[in-house]
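(Fold this chain)
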Amino acid sequence: MTDDRDPSATAADGFPPGPGGHDPEVLRQRALDALLTARARTATLTDCVDDGELTAQHSPLMSPLVWDLAHIGNQEEQWLLRAVGGREALRPEMDGLYDAFEHPRATRPSLPLMAPAEARAYASDVRGRALDILEGTPLHEGGRPLERAGFAFGMIAQHEQQHDETMLITHQLRTGPVALTAPAPPAPTDADTLPAEVLIPGGPFTMGTSTEPWALDNERPAHRREVAAFHLDTSPVTCGAYRRFIEDGGYTDPRWWRPEGWDMVREHDLTAPLFWHREEGQWLRRRFGVTEPVPDDEPVLHVSWYEADAYARWAGRRLPTEAEWEKAARHDPATGRSLRYPWGDTDPTPEQANLGQRHLRPARTGAYPAGRAPSGAGQLIGDVWEWTSSDFLPYPGFVAFPYREYSDVFFGPGHKVLRGGSFAVDQVACRGTFRNWDLPVRRQIFSGFRTARGA
């Protein structure tokens, strides 16, 4: 597999850069909608529990919910009020307190954090001022980079939605009464007739983007990538398939595990995905405060990269590379174009993908036929984040923007790439080019996987 910077990458993208193209007023409305949607979700996640739950640390892996709430406001103040609007700092003393790099999650409860009422008032005050700035900021192509196409506003909407996903993880980790409910996802219509895998033809495709206005720095620039032909699972690996790995001794056989993964299994006495336990001969799981039987036909969830890799080895397969995943999700062989999403260039609808916390679980495999890619692979967007085999690395020609700490400091072999989003991801922070990354030991995230093999 090779990659080279594509000098005609902007044209090679071949798709419109979002609803309305770069029309400033369309982008202004889009930014307003994204900001309001994110704030409504933040309220849902923080209003459903009392102040004691907001200030408690439900796991050393996560921040208290009230930290996330104030951090959301602080980032919005720094980027929209100060950087874009040129306003004086409202609470400069809060910058260090809510700096994610300065304070590890495990130590944040010991900080002099804002109380819930103060955090809500601060975030609300910042938001009112930010909307005034949005109304008066020119978003035309010739503007400052942060303002151009509303990038800073889209970045902050994505940032808030990413923290909303983080807060939803905290809700999954917390114990106590059920705080969140949602209807079940739609049932599949043709799951029984779907092939187990699809063939992705070899050849070049355009990876990444140079035209999507709110794409983050690690998604850029668009470049040509050569990928050999391969087979890919039509759907993510199911709980039922993963259960067979467990019952075949998967967690007791070091043959399937990387050395570091085997060390993790032994150190923590792992026997199944996080939140699973066995009772009276049946596998059960805890999901947002409810204990229920593990459903065989749902994508497996809460597995680390090491567990996904071990399963793939046991199955005689492998995890797809990041480039393979993106080609399967975006490449349209009929036109040679790379699409914004598996189904085309239009933003996701509820008929195409399980996004935005509409449901509090993945859909059963085979759901969302309207969201399938030209390759025939389904559920590539939403449902579960999918581990790939790839390290998180910059694309050729990468330029950090607007700050190094978003992507640049994480590049290297320590982090593995996840693709596709999950039911906990909002559409503003999920597209065919979007790249997520995490440590290979991470299990509390909404992660699953699918497997591949050479053709």
